[in-house]
Design a protein that fits this description.
Number of strands: 7
Oligomer: single chain
CATH superfamily: 2-C-methyl-D-erythritol 2,4-cyclodiphosphate synthase
Order of helices and strands: EEEEHHHEHEE
Mean pLDDT: 97
Strand content: 25-35%
Radius of gyration: 15 Å
Number of helices: 4
Amino acid sequence: MLPYRIGQGYDIHRLIPEKPMMVGGVRIESPVGSEAHSDGDVLLHSLIDALLGACGLGDIGDHFPPTDEQYKNISSTVLLQKVLPLIAQAAYTVGNLDATIFLEKPKLGPYKQQIRENLANLLNLSLDCVSVKAKTAEKFPPVGTQEAIAASVTLLMRRIS
């Protein structure tokens, strides 16, 4: 077994009115939110894909298909909590993660620290092992025209001895 593995996840959702916006398990004040079967938290969806991918366990759709009504409007935090035991069973743990959220508006600067702290707490990591960046798309569609939100996560997994 490899002592280290790298995981990468990406997600994008269309933005629609009158739906709460969740990013990294944190509610963001916004008139729009992600169109999705679950709560549409693109950052946690990217994280879940990165975790599963690093351990060779498929992707979020394999474990939580959007056709399954039990996941309708479910919190992505709950989905992450269902995935973490699978990662532990594979005998890996997160070493560090680097996340980027792509959103034109609202600006995420005021939320970045709270998102970072929440991710560290959810993964039982020290804060210095979690990086969260927010980027715009410089008016390039669909993120830059405020039609979508996207996120990317890269993480290093360590084998549990």
